[in-house]
Amino acid sequence: MSSFAIIPQSALDVLNDVLGFWHDAVGGGENSWGIAIILLTFTIRLLILPLTFKSVKSMQKLQVLQPEIKKIQARYK
Fold it and tell me: What residue numbers bound the domain in which 66 lies?
């Protein structure tokens, strides 16, 4: 069993295709794999950016509520 068995094959295929696209886009030589990996990383980070913003907003709301949560916890100890 592969160590990547937990990741669906279709997701790995998409990542492989995107990596291949970036590799070809930067020249396709053997030395372009590093740049392609960096560009793949930027692509993934760009795709999850909306989730990151939602997470930050949620944490900020929780920080505002934190004093009330502490009061409730102290009351019911």
Answer: 9-75
